[in-house]
Amino acid sequence: MITNQPALQRLVETWMRARPLVRANSDRPKRDIPVHLAAALTRHEPYRTQALTDARLFLATPLLAGIGLEFELVSPLEPFPYAHWSETISPLQIRLTWMRTMAGDQIDWAYEGIERVAFEDGEWRIVCFWNDVDRDIVLKMRRFF
């Protein structure tokens, strides 16, 4: 059983809603990560350094969106030990659902993910946004957003 699933849901929603809904205004990821978001990253090195680097890119990546955007954690959520942590989820898959019209008669969805989250110091934190392959894909796609 997963520890504090509502907190995990809040972590996902906070990070996803921090992303721009349209094309980013800059060719470079923002340099500053808001304090409340940086606090939601692991404190363990070398994971934190990579998470900080990835967070800048993640926050500059446009979010697929529409009317009434919702985020749902995709089951199964089966935690397991990894490195410093007794409870991690990898990958954490997220289903995004939104309406294309105000009438709500056209619903669309997409899947996104966070490579690894861990229960650390009594709360869920992001350890890694992407694995190496996915990180390379995001970096290559960066020229489009």
Describe this structure in words.
This protein is α+β, with helices and mostly antiparallel strands. It has four helices and seven strands. It has helices at 5-17, 35-38, 47-60, 132-141, and strands at residues 67-73, 80-82, 85-89, 92-99, 107-114, 116-120, 123-128. Strands 2-3-6-7 form a four-stranded antiparallel beta sheet. A three-stranded antiparallel beta sheet has the order 1-4-5, covered by helices on one side. A hairpin with a 7-residue loop joins strand 4 and strand 5. The longest helix is centred in the middle third of the chain and has 14 residues, at 47-60.
Write the layout of secondary structure elements.
Blueprint: H1 5-17, H2 35-38, H3 47-60, E1 67-73, E2 80-82, E3 85-89, E4 92-99, E5 107-114, E6 116-120, E7 123-128, H4 132-141
Antiparallel strand pairs: 1-4, 2-3, 3-6, 4-5, 6-7
